[in-house]
Amino acid sequence: MSLRLSTVILPYRRWSEGGRSAWMRAEQLGFHTAYSYDHLSWRSFRDGPWFGAVPTLTAAAAVTDRLRLGTLVTSPNFRHPVTLAKELISLDDISGGRVTLGIGAGGTGFDATALGQEPWSPRERADRFAEFVPLLDRLLTEDAVSHEGRFYSAHEARNIPGCVQRPRLPFAVAATGPRGLRLAARYGQAWVTTGDPKLYETGTPEQSVEALRGQVGKLSEACAAAGRDVADLDKILLTGFTPDRTRPLESLDAFVDFAGRHQQLGFTEIVIHWPIPDSDFAADQKVFERIALEATAQLG
Predict the structure, then answer these.
(1) Who has the most CB within 10 Å: 16, 27, 68, 247?
(2) Per-residue pLDDT tens listing for the chain (300 residues)
(3) How far apart, in Å, are the Cα atoms of 54 and each of 11, 35, 81, 91, 210?
(4) pTM to 2 decimals?
């Protein structure tokens, strides 16, 4: 399968001050999908402008025609399956069936406490995720759903007419642990990883590749246990969080080398961040656009 190239456009700019033009340009550059983070705030951007993912993606749907749109990633930290399903069905309708839901268990960032709760333990995050994903799957595929769970409930929740994409919009499940990988194997149309976070500060690119090889192997095992061919799942690498950091965006050759090594591991989609000056995602816009226009042809 040929490698697809996608981007992440962080929602930190007003729509009238560069937000709109970035999404339109992403389509012009031929990206497969343009994603946005689904956070209430995020790391170094916390004290600056930051807009909601679903309204931003809805606006992006209105100014694009072919570009797929998605979240990387939505989590239970501040979402409930019932209300999220209604928003996703609406977004899928407005976009004409161009939405992918990137979804993960969440973490310990600002989202984890914004609603006034104590941060959940890793076990509770995993427990909630294991209940959240199957319920969301039902809400997006059934006209009416009732469910009484440990963490989430639904009472005759109606979602008519359902998604434009059938049986529902695709899930891209972010996971590296065994429980998350089982969810990806059962419910995912794609799997997402950022690599091994333990290697970000002191690891090497070579160690990162080996760690990712191991993750792909564990995904294969989870798929086999679920009676599914791992080739049925797209494998998405969100870049910027491996020891390579932004070095793959320094030149077209650097990116082709980076992407080729990960394509050999079985990845079908590489996601690069839209350049943001004076941030961890700073990159030369001209080089970034050249990568968008030329890299996939070299990778085959």
Answers:
(1) 68
(2) 689 999 999 999 999 999 999 999 999 999 999 999 999 999 999 999 999 999 999 999 999 999 999 999 999 999 999 999 999 999 999 999 999 999 999 999 899 999 999 999 999 999 999 999 999 999 999 999 999 999 999 999 999 999 999 999 999 999 999 999 999 999 999 999 999 999 999 999 999 999 999 999 999 999 999 999 999 999 999 999 999 999 999 999 999 999 999 999 999 999 999 999 999 999 999 999 999 999 999 997
(3) 10, 11, 14, 8, 35
(4) 0.97
